[in-house]
Amino acid sequence: MRLGIFFSCICLLFLTSINCKASTLILEEIQKSIINDFKLEGKIKIVKDTPPDSIKISPKAEPKKELSKGELAVQEQLRQNREKVKQYQQQNEDITPGNDLLKTKQQEITEWQRNKKQEIIDNQIKKQQEIKDWQNEKQLIINQWLTEKGNFNKRIPKYKENLISENVFLENQIQATNDVKNSNESQKTSVVSPEKMIPPNITMPIFPDFYVIDKSLDVEIKDQGQRPTCAAFTGIRAMEILMSQQGKDEKLSEQYFFWASIPKCQTSPCQKEGSWVFNAYQSSLEAKSPNIPLEKDCPYNQKNLNDNVTQIPLNNSCLTGHAKIKKFTSVQTSAEIITAIKAGHPVIGGFKLTENFYKNEGYVFVQSTKDGGAKLDEHAGGHAVLLVGIMKMPAELHQKEGKFCLISANSWGPGWGKGGHACLSENWIERHRFNVPFIALEQVETI
């Protein structure tokens, strides 16, 4: 799905290895919501419904089909037959259509054409059935989202109670800046300090009308429950996306990651306390071997223990490491964020929430047609989400919303937004982001 007149409904073009079943449906539903709510019918081309694993071909640049060995052998045999017929005709100018050899060759060609035609018909029937099955499956998924949305709406007060104070982000920024400086001096870290990351007169990079990080919409959306662990969920999801790109569809432990994010709460119980990803990423980066366990070895508990937020002591199995951080960087400007996403690096960001963030239909904009508008909610707390894609906005929305929106994945289950995702407009991001560098994850490794 691409926004604007340049939008192409070719899934292969920008989603080469992304499962089109997940990504197309999420993005299509986000797009439909924007069209309906802002009356943009005809201004945005709807992404074409496509069954999973099918290939959509551009009408302007139709690729040449690669023939199988069997088809190549048939083609070669037909070529040889045509050559023999031609030679025979030249040697026997008085040959007639009734000649047995010519009849045989013509029959072979006719039979091959008949079989080929039937093969095309069979493929068309198969494709139509695939589309029908996908439409049915898609409706089942949408119905599941609606059910989850009803459950999510009931839990909103709990999520609001567990938003993170801006001070947590700011304190972590101070810690991050000091640690980055010291670590860079000792050449032990791959983190780049914000001031070195921003060149003078930086310009917005050119990006396609639409781009989503490979595998980013395929990783399961989880639910943090009643705990202030949003940053832990975004940090783990970013790792799981990069692992999925390596063919490793494994779930890591948010329980351990949250514990690793708050050093002061690792040995002594703390009361309600939020976190940021830097400490957990940094400690993993410096670890000599994988330190972050699988979810099955260190399962997450959704219930909050206010007098023991990290729920210590952790089980011994939580010390069974499976994955570790190899490289992460700080990004601050919109240009840097988009550059990181284009490079396939999920970006973790922190925001102060508005009322329309909670109940949304796949987008969070400055202007809103319902659900409380874009005013800050009474809690005005902070929340971390993962940024995984970019969409250009149609010209009609540039003035109020900016030229793009960033596709985000949340940790409140699939009932939020569209399957747990929403697109945050450029202007909403600039107004409501916390004044701290975001974190882009670049490399992970596993056992």
Structure write-up:
The chain has helices spanning 11-14, 20-37, 69-91, 100-161, 166-186, 194-197, 230-245, 254-261, 278-286, 334-342, 355-358, 398-401, 426-432; strands spanning 210-212, 323-331, 347-352, 363-364, 382-392, 404-409, 421-425, 438-446. The protein is an alpha+beta fold and 447 residues long. It has a domain at 162-446: Cysteine proteinases (Cathepsin B, Chain A, Alpha-Beta Complex). Strands 1, 2, 3, 4, 5, 6, 7 and 8 form an eight-stranded mixed β-sheet that branches. Helix 3 (69-91) runs antiparallel to helix 4 and helix 7 (230-245) packs across helix 8 (254-261). The radius of gyration is 28 Å and the shape is elongated. Mean pLDDT is 81; it is low at 1-20, 53-63 and 180-202.
Task: Write the topology of this structure.
Elements: H1 11-14, H2 20-37, H3 69-91, H4 100-161, H5 166-186, H6 194-197, E1 210-212, H7 230-245, H8 254-261, H9 278-286, E2 323-331, H10 334-342, E3 347-352, H11 355-358, E4 363-364, E5 382-392, H12 398-401, E6 404-409, E7 421-425, H13 426-432, E8 438-446
Parallel strand pairs: 4-7
Antiparallel strand pairs: 1-5, 2-8, 3-5, 3-8, 5-6, 6-7
Helix pairs in contact: 3-4, 7-8, 8-9
Key terms:
447 residues, Cathepsin B, Chain A, 8-stranded mixed sheet, 13 helices
Number of helices: 13
Can you tell me the CATH topology of the domain at 162-446?
Cathepsin B, Chain A
Helix content: 40-55%
Low-confidence stretches: 1-20, 53-63, 180-202
H/E series: HHHHHHEHHHEHEHEEHEEHE
Shape: elongated
Structural class: alpha+beta
Distance between the termini: 36 Å
- According to CATH, the homologous superfamily of the domain at 162-446 is Cysteine proteinases
Strand content: 5-15%
Kindly report the average pLDDT value.
81
Q: Architecture of the domain at 162-446, CATH level 2?
A: Alpha-Beta Complex
Major β-sheet annotation: 8 strands, mixed
